[in-house]
Amino acid sequence: MLHRKSIAVLVIGFVLIVGSLLVTANSVVEQKASLAGTITSNGLVKPGDTVREGDVLVKIDTITGAIPASRATANGVVKEVLVSPGVSVAVGDVVARIEIGK
To answer: Which sign, positive or negative, has the C-alpha torsion 69, 57, 99, 48?
Structure first.
C-alpha cells in the first residue's frame, strides 16, 4: 500500500514539473524601455527576428547618436514590436514582446 502511494506521488510530481516546463517554455515576455527618448530606425527589431538575451531591441536618438533603449531579457523570437521610428517612449514603456522557448 505504501509503495503504491509513493509511486502515485512521484507520478503526480513528474506531471506537475513537466506541465510547468511546458507552460513557461512558450510564454511571452514584455520588453520595456530602460531609457526615455525618440525611437530610431537604426537597430529596431522586427517581428519574427530571433534574439538572445542582451541583444538590442530598440534604440533612441541622443545628441551623441543612437543608444540602446531596450535589450532582450530572454532568448526567443520577437512576437510583436509596439513602437516605430519617431515615437517617443518613457522609461518602463513596453516596446516589444518576445516569445521565449522558440
So the answer is: positive
For residues 57 and 78, the answer to whether their CB atoms sit within 8 Å is yes
The answer to whether 70 and 31 are in contact (CB under 8 A) is yes
- What is the mean predicted confidence (pLDDT) over 1-23? 63
**H or E segment at 89?**
strand 88-89
The answer, yes or no, to whether residue 8 has pLDDT greater than 70, is: no
Output the pTM of the full model.
0.71
Q: What is the DSSP string of 56-79?
A: EEEEEEETTEEEEEEE-SSSEEEE
**Average pLDDT rounded to a whole number, residues 45-61:** 95
- Give the whole-angstrom CA distance, residue 18 versus residue 11: 11
**28-100 CATH:** 2.40.50.100
Asked if 100 and 75 count as a contact pair (C-beta separation under 8 A), the reply is yes
Across-strand partners of 71? Answer: 56
